[in-house]
Amino acid sequence: MSIRRSRRALPILAVALAVLLVPVGSAGAAPARAARPAIFPTTIALPDGFGPEGIAIGAAPFAYFGSTVDGSIFRANLVTGQGRIVSPATGTPSVGMKIDLRGRLFVAGGPAGDGRVVSAATGDVLAHYSFASGSTFVNDVVVTPDAAWFTDSFNPVLYEVPLGRHGRLPGQASVVTLPLTGITFQAGFNVNGISRTPDGRALLVVQTNTGLLFRVDPRTGAATQVDLGGQLVTNGDGILLHGRTLYVVQNQDNLVAVVHLNRRGTRGAVVERVTDPRFDTPTTVARFGGRLYLPNARFSVTTTPTTPYTANAIRAPR
Question: Other CB atoms closer than 10 Å to residue 118's CB: what's the count?
């Protein structure tokens, strides 16, 4: 059956997806510009006391947020700004997260040293993986066509969950711990956000405490520093690749660094640093249409049952 689209509907759709901006200004950084009130809200209220950290957005206009307090997952409609808990508390944190083309959320478990896969549609836990115990912080994840890769901010390793045919989830015995070489771990949070390189052949990770970006060979774990011309992305947290542009959230600095990379991800340049007065320690980033969405983790405040939390939308810098 064919579907005819009204020409009159096209301008309306364009308005719905467009993100118009107003300057906000910040010392030492190019101002991000919040979208004028149109159809999609630019600030989304999250549950009080939620303690957000990770965000994931797929093809549909829904954002998923993980709670560091109880591990529950909140889904927000990007059109209305309304949402609800879709996956109940697990008792362990939900930190970095990504959604795949099959509608599955891959969630890092932070100090629990684990990861899990959750149905975005039902909230059911489809698989659970134990990675480490003791001193560990499983911080972020990226999903490639053949694996999900998790970082550990306290240990120089990556955890690989290999995916089978048609994305089949493996059992615990298939999990691989890949030692990292070429990155000097220091006190505090080390390897954090993770993405693929623009050519898809390697991985990119940011080291929070040093502000360095590394390219990692997924076969050997060998890491080489990405040449950013001497610039740093200190306090780098979640990262997001769009084409050859890498967005790096600098959490404590309330910035998003915009990095233009070569195809192999071996060199790049920080072309802009964006801020917004609504930022309150943003941690991770996801994109929908022409917007970036970032949750405010508010690390400087103590989380109580009544502590308010929000996520904000800004225009995606190019």
Answer: 27
List, for residues 6-61, the tens digit of each pLDDT value: 333 433 334 344 433 333 334 456 555 554 445 799 999 999 999 999 999 999 99
- Distance separating alpha carbons of residues 241 and 160, to the nearest angstrom: 19
Enter the tokens of residue 216: 């990692």
Closest to 140 measured CA to CA, from 94, 89, 180, 175: 94
Task: Provide CB contacts within 8 A for 9, sequence distance 6+.
Answer: none
Strand 291-295: give its sheet, edge to edge.
43-46, 309-315, 291-295, 286-288
Side by side, the strands of the sheet bearing 176-179 are 138-143, 147-152, 157-162, 176-179
Give the global pTM: 0.88
Task: Indicate the burial class of 97 (C-beta count within 10 angstroms; 0-12, 13-18, 19 or more).
Answer: buried
In words, the CATH class of domain 35-315 is mainly beta
Measured distance CA(263)–CA(174) in Å, rounded: 31
Tokens of 274: 């964006």
Contact by Cβ (8 Å): 284, 94:
no
pLDDT digits (tens, 9 = 90+) for 196-232: 999 999 999 999 999 999 999 999 999 999 999 999 9
